[in-house]
Amino acid sequence: MARFNYLLRQYENLSAVASIFSALSGRPTSDWMAAQKISDQFLKQRNAIERGEFGAARRGLGEIQLELRETHEKLQQFDDSLSAYLLRARYQQQGARREEIKELLQFLLGKSPLQEGDYDKIDYLVTRFYALNCGTGSDFTSGFEDRIRTEYQQMLTQAGVIVQDANTAAIERYKFFRDEIGSLKTFEQLITQDVIGRLREFKAEFKDHWFHPDALIEMARTNLFVGQCFQNLANNERQQIDRLAAQLLSAGISEVRQPGGSGKIPVEDAQEISALSASLLNQEYRTNKERIARIAKVKESLEQAHNSIIASNEPGNPLPSDPLACEVQPKELETILDELSPTPDRLQQDLRARISHLSKLISEAVAPDAEINIKLGNITLTLAPWEVTAFHSDQSQLSPEEMRLHRLLRVSVALIAELQEKADLVCRGLELERLRNTYLIGARYLIQLSQQTVREIELCCVNGQSSLPREVCEQLLITRQKLIESCKQFSTKIRLAASY
Question: Which positions ≥6 away from 216 have C-beta within 8 Å?
Answer without folding.
Answer: 126, 152, 210
